[in-house]
Amino acid sequence: MKSLPLKYRPQQLEDLVGQEFIKTTLKNALTAKIIAPAYLFAGPRGTGKTSTARIMAKSLNCLNVDQPTIEPCGECSSCRSIERSNAIDVTEIDAASHNGVDNAIGNDSERRNQELEKLLLYAGDSKLGKSQVAQLVAINTQTSLQLASAIKAGQALLVAQLTQELLAKGEPPLKLIATLITQFRTWLWTKLALAEGIKTNAEIAQIANVGNVNRVYYLRQEVAKCSVRNLSRAVVLLYELQIAYPQGMKVDSLQSRLLITCQAFQVI
Ligand SMILES: [Zn+2]
Protein backbone atom coordinates (compact mmCIF):
# COMPACT_ATOMS: atom_id res chain seq x y z
CA MET A 1 0.00 0.00 0.00
CA LYS A 2 1.43 3.33 -1.02
CA SER A 3 -0.30 6.46 0.26
CA LEU A 4 -1.40 9.07 -2.24
CA PRO A 5 0.78 11.86 -0.82
CA LEU A 6 3.76 9.54 -1.00
CA LYS A 7 2.99 8.35 -4.50
CA TYR A 8 2.45 11.85 -5.83
CA ARG A 9 4.95 13.77 -3.71
CA PRO A 10 7.04 15.86 -6.11
CA GLN A 11 10.53 14.41 -6.55
CA GLN A 12 12.19 17.28 -8.43
CA LEU A 13 11.74 21.04 -8.57
CA GLU A 14 10.18 20.59 -12.01
CA ASP A 15 7.34 18.57 -10.44
CA LEU A 16 6.36 21.28 -7.93
CA VAL A 17 2.94 22.67 -8.78
CA GLY A 18 1.69 26.12 -7.82
CA GLN A 19 4.99 27.47 -6.52
CA GLU A 20 6.36 28.87 -9.77
CA PHE A 21 8.31 31.70 -8.18
CA ILE A 22 10.04 29.44 -5.64
CA LYS A 23 10.69 26.84 -8.32
CA THR A 24 12.34 29.35 -10.68
CA THR A 25 14.42 30.92 -7.90
CA LEU A 26 15.76 27.58 -6.68
CA LYS A 27 16.36 26.24 -10.20
CA ASN A 28 18.31 29.36 -11.10
CA ALA A 29 20.38 29.05 -7.93
CA LEU A 30 21.17 25.38 -8.64
CA THR A 31 21.96 25.97 -12.32
CA ALA A 32 24.20 28.93 -11.54
CA LYS A 33 25.77 26.96 -8.62
CA ILE A 34 25.19 29.97 -6.40
CA ILE A 35 23.76 28.40 -3.29
CA ALA A 36 22.81 30.56 -0.31
CA PRO A 37 24.00 29.37 3.14
CA ALA A 38 20.37 29.03 4.24
CA TYR A 39 16.87 29.01 2.79
CA LEU A 40 13.79 29.79 4.84
CA PHE A 41 10.48 28.37 3.59
CA ALA A 42 7.45 29.97 5.20
CA GLY A 43 3.75 29.44 4.61
CA PRO A 44 0.62 27.71 5.87
CA ARG A 45 0.50 23.96 6.29
CA GLY A 46 0.20 21.90 3.16
CA THR A 47 1.81 24.37 0.78
CA GLY A 48 4.90 22.26 0.21
CA LYS A 49 7.58 23.59 2.57
CA THR A 50 8.78 20.14 3.60
CA SER A 51 8.59 18.75 0.04
CA THR A 52 10.56 21.70 -1.31
CA ALA A 53 13.17 21.43 1.44
CA ARG A 54 13.63 17.71 0.70
CA ILE A 55 13.94 18.29 -3.04
CA MET A 56 16.51 21.00 -2.34
CA ALA A 57 18.44 18.64 -0.03
CA LYS A 58 18.45 15.93 -2.73
CA SER A 59 19.50 18.46 -5.39
CA LEU A 60 22.52 19.40 -3.29
CA ASN A 61 23.47 15.91 -2.10
CA CYS A 62 22.70 13.51 -4.99
CA LEU A 63 25.58 11.05 -5.34
CA ASN A 64 25.07 10.45 -9.05
CA VAL A 65 26.09 13.99 -9.92
CA ASP A 66 29.20 15.69 -8.62
CA GLN A 67 27.68 19.16 -8.36
CA PRO A 68 24.34 20.73 -7.40
CA THR A 69 21.71 19.56 -9.89
CA ILE A 70 18.14 20.38 -10.79
CA GLU A 71 17.63 16.70 -11.56
CA PRO A 72 18.53 14.59 -8.50
CA CYS A 73 18.38 10.92 -9.48
CA GLY A 74 16.01 9.82 -6.72
CA GLU A 75 17.73 6.40 -6.75
CA CYS A 76 21.10 6.81 -5.03
CA SER A 77 21.46 6.17 -1.30
CA SER A 78 21.56 9.89 -0.54
CA CYS A 79 18.37 10.70 -2.49
CA ARG A 80 16.57 7.72 -1.00
CA SER A 81 17.58 8.38 2.59
CA ILE A 82 16.48 12.01 2.28
CA GLU A 83 13.14 10.86 0.89
CA ARG A 84 12.76 8.45 3.81
CA SER A 85 13.91 11.21 6.19
CA ASN A 86 16.68 9.11 7.70
CA ALA A 87 19.63 10.82 6.05
CA ILE A 88 22.42 11.49 8.53
CA ASP A 89 23.24 14.91 7.10
CA VAL A 90 19.68 16.10 6.77
CA THR A 91 17.81 16.89 9.98
CA GLU A 92 14.12 17.63 9.85
CA ILE A 93 12.82 19.69 12.74
CA ASP A 94 9.33 20.55 11.47
CA ALA A 95 8.59 22.40 14.70
CA ALA A 96 4.86 22.83 14.12
CA SER A 97 4.07 19.14 14.36
CA HIS A 98 6.89 17.90 16.56
CA ASN A 99 6.52 20.01 19.64
CA GLY A 100 4.18 17.55 21.23
CA VAL A 101 1.86 20.31 22.42
CA ASP A 102 -0.98 18.15 21.24
CA ASN A 103 0.03 15.76 24.02
CA ALA A 104 -0.05 18.52 26.57
CA ILE A 105 -3.66 19.53 26.84
CA GLY A 106 -3.94 22.69 28.88
CA ASN A 107 -1.04 24.80 29.98
CA ASP A 108 1.49 22.23 31.09
CA SER A 109 4.66 24.29 31.04
CA GLU A 110 6.89 21.47 32.27
CA ARG A 111 5.72 19.26 29.42
CA ARG A 112 6.29 22.08 26.98
CA ASN A 113 9.82 22.46 28.29
CA GLN A 114 10.51 18.76 27.78
CA GLU A 115 9.20 18.96 24.23
CA LEU A 116 11.43 21.92 23.50
CA GLU A 117 14.43 19.96 24.84
CA LYS A 118 13.52 17.19 22.41
CA LEU A 119 13.31 19.63 19.51
CA LEU A 120 16.76 20.92 20.42
CA LEU A 121 18.04 17.34 20.18
CA TYR A 122 16.52 17.02 16.70
CA ALA A 123 18.20 20.30 15.78
CA GLY A 124 21.57 18.62 16.46
CA ASP A 125 24.59 20.87 16.10
CA SER A 126 22.73 23.88 14.83
CA LYS A 127 23.16 26.98 16.95
CA LEU A 128 19.52 27.33 17.88
CA GLY A 129 18.72 28.12 21.49
CA LYS A 130 15.59 27.03 23.29
CA SER A 131 13.88 30.40 22.93
CA GLN A 132 14.59 30.44 19.19
CA VAL A 133 13.14 26.97 18.78
CA ALA A 134 10.09 28.09 20.77
CA GLN A 135 9.66 31.01 18.40
CA LEU A 136 9.63 28.63 15.43
CA VAL A 137 6.27 27.40 16.59
CA ALA A 138 3.53 29.94 16.05
CA ILE A 139 1.52 30.20 19.24
CA ASN A 140 -1.78 30.03 17.33
CA THR A 141 -0.65 26.81 15.66
CA GLN A 142 0.08 25.38 19.10
CA THR A 143 -3.38 26.38 20.29
CA SER A 144 -4.93 24.92 17.11
CA LEU A 145 -3.17 21.62 17.81
CA GLN A 146 -4.43 21.72 21.41
CA LEU A 147 -7.89 22.26 19.94
CA ALA A 148 -7.47 19.19 17.72
CA SER A 149 -6.53 17.13 20.79
CA ALA A 150 -9.48 18.48 22.76
CA ILE A 151 -11.85 17.51 19.91
CA LYS A 152 -10.31 14.04 19.77
CA ALA A 153 -10.63 13.69 23.54
CA GLY A 154 -14.30 14.73 23.39
CA GLN A 155 -13.69 17.68 25.75
CA ALA A 156 -16.50 20.00 24.67
CA LEU A 157 -15.80 22.77 27.18
CA LEU A 158 -12.16 23.01 26.19
CA VAL A 159 -13.12 22.94 22.50
CA ALA A 160 -15.43 25.93 22.97
CA GLN A 161 -12.82 27.78 25.03
CA LEU A 162 -9.91 27.20 22.63
CA THR A 163 -12.01 28.07 19.55
CA GLN A 164 -13.02 31.36 21.15
CA GLU A 165 -9.44 32.07 22.17
CA LEU A 166 -8.15 31.49 18.63
CA LEU A 167 -10.82 33.58 16.95
CA ALA A 168 -10.30 36.38 19.49
CA LYS A 169 -6.58 36.33 18.68
CA GLY A 170 -7.47 36.87 15.02
CA GLU A 171 -6.61 33.38 13.74
CA PRO A 172 -8.29 33.18 10.30
CA PRO A 173 -11.03 30.50 10.55
CA LEU A 174 -9.92 28.85 7.30
CA LYS A 175 -6.36 28.54 8.57
CA LEU A 176 -7.65 27.07 11.81
CA ILE A 177 -9.78 24.55 9.87
CA ALA A 178 -6.79 23.67 7.63
CA THR A 179 -4.60 22.99 10.68
CA LEU A 180 -7.30 20.75 12.17
CA ILE A 181 -7.68 18.87 8.88
CA THR A 182 -3.93 18.24 8.66
CA GLN A 183 -3.83 16.94 12.23
CA PHE A 184 -6.88 14.70 11.87
CA ARG A 185 -5.68 13.31 8.53
CA THR A 186 -2.35 12.44 10.15
CA TRP A 187 -4.18 10.63 12.96
CA LEU A 188 -6.50 8.88 10.49
CA TRP A 189 -3.65 7.65 8.27
CA THR A 190 -1.69 6.47 11.31
CA LYS A 191 -4.72 4.57 12.59
CA LEU A 192 -5.36 3.09 9.12
CA ALA A 193 -1.73 2.01 8.82
CA LEU A 194 -1.91 0.32 12.23
CA ALA A 195 -5.23 -1.32 11.30
CA GLU A 196 -3.58 -2.65 8.12
CA GLY A 197 -1.00 -4.34 10.35
CA ILE A 198 1.88 -2.09 9.35
CA LYS A 199 4.45 -2.29 12.10
CA THR A 200 7.55 -0.20 11.50
CA ASN A 201 7.56 3.47 12.41
CA ALA A 202 9.29 4.32 9.12
CA GLU A 203 6.45 2.83 7.07
CA ILE A 204 3.81 4.48 9.23
CA ALA A 205 5.61 7.83 8.84
CA GLN A 206 5.49 7.43 5.07
CA ILE A 207 1.82 6.52 4.98
CA ALA A 208 0.82 9.28 7.40
CA ASN A 209 3.05 11.72 5.52
CA VAL A 210 4.93 12.60 8.69
CA GLY A 211 8.30 14.25 8.10
CA ASN A 212 10.08 12.97 11.17
CA VAL A 213 9.86 9.29 11.96
CA ASN A 214 10.36 9.97 15.69
CA ARG A 215 6.92 11.52 15.76
CA VAL A 216 5.30 8.13 15.08
CA TYR A 217 6.08 7.00 18.63
CA TYR A 218 3.70 9.69 19.91
CA LEU A 219 1.17 9.26 17.10
CA ARG A 220 0.71 5.63 18.09
CA GLN A 221 -0.29 6.74 21.60
CA GLU A 222 -2.46 9.56 20.32
CA VAL A 223 -4.62 7.27 18.19
CA ALA A 224 -4.66 4.36 20.63
CA LYS A 225 -8.08 5.18 22.02
CA CYS A 226 -9.93 6.33 18.91
CA SER A 227 -11.52 4.39 16.10
CA VAL A 228 -10.97 4.67 12.35
CA ARG A 229 -14.69 5.43 12.07
CA ASN A 230 -14.58 8.43 14.41
CA LEU A 231 -11.42 9.82 12.86
CA SER A 232 -12.84 9.52 9.32
CA ARG A 233 -16.05 11.15 10.45
CA ALA A 234 -14.09 14.07 11.93
CA VAL A 235 -12.10 14.49 8.71
CA VAL A 236 -15.33 14.55 6.66
CA LEU A 237 -16.96 17.08 9.01
CA LEU A 238 -13.88 19.30 8.85
CA TYR A 239 -13.80 19.17 5.04
CA GLU A 240 -17.48 20.16 5.04
CA LEU A 241 -16.56 23.13 7.22
CA GLN A 242 -13.79 24.10 4.83
CA ILE A 243 -16.36 24.26 2.02
CA ALA A 244 -19.17 25.88 4.05
CA TYR A 245 -17.12 28.67 5.60
CA PRO A 246 -16.23 30.64 2.43
CA GLN A 247 -19.89 30.34 1.39
CA GLY A 248 -20.95 32.63 4.20
CA MET A 249 -21.03 30.40 7.25
CA LYS A 250 -21.12 32.36 10.53
CA VAL A 251 -18.38 32.18 13.16
CA ASP A 252 -20.95 30.97 15.71
CA SER A 253 -21.84 27.97 13.59
CA LEU A 254 -18.13 27.28 13.09
CA GLN A 255 -17.91 26.77 16.84
CA SER A 256 -21.05 24.63 17.01
CA ARG A 257 -19.83 22.47 14.11
CA LEU A 258 -16.55 21.90 15.94
CA LEU A 259 -18.56 20.86 19.00
CA ILE A 260 -20.51 18.38 16.86
CA THR A 261 -17.19 16.98 15.63
CA CYS A 262 -16.10 16.73 19.25
CA GLN A 263 -19.29 14.93 20.32
CA ALA A 264 -18.53 12.19 17.81
CA PHE A 265 -15.59 11.27 20.01
CA GLN A 266 -17.54 11.19 23.26
CA VAL A 267 -19.22 7.91 22.30
CA ILE A 268 -16.82 5.24 21.13
ZN1 LIG B 1 20.64 10.77 -6.21
How does this model look, in words?
The chain has helices spanning 4-8, 20-32, 49-61, 77-83, 95-98, 109-123, 130-136, 139-152, 156-168, 173-195, 201-207, 215-222, 228-244, 251-263. By secondary structure, it is mainly α. The protein has 2 domains: 4-84, P-loop containing nucleotide triphosphate hydrolases (Rossmann fold), CATH 3.40.50.300; 101-263, Zinc Finger, Delta Prime, domain 3 (Up-down Bundle), CATH 1.20.272. Mean pLDDT is 80; it is low at 98-107. The site of zinc ion has 9 residues, from helix 4.
Topology, please?
Elements: H1 4-8, H2 20-32, H3 49-61, H4 77-83, H5 95-98, H6 109-123, H7 130-136, H8 139-152, H9 156-168, H10 173-195, H11 201-207, H12 215-222, H13 228-244, H14 251-263
Helix pairs in contact: 3-4, 8-9, 8-10, 9-14, 10-11, 10-12, 10-13, 13-14
The chain binds zinc ion (ZN).
Mind describing the biggest β-sheet?
Answer: none
Instruction: Give the count of helical stretches.
Output: 14
Radius of gyration: 19 Å
Order of helices and strands: HHHHHHHHHHHHHH
Number of strands: 0
Bound molecules: zinc ion
Shape: globular
Beta-strand percentage?
Answer: under 5%
Q: What are the low-pLDDT stretches, counting only 5+ consecutive residues below 50?
A: 98-107
Percent helix? 55-70%
**Mean pLDDT over all positions:** 80
Number of domains: 2
Oligomer: single chain
Give the distance, in angstroms, between the N- and C-terminal Cα atoms: 28 Å
CATH architecture label name of the largest domain: Up-down Bundle
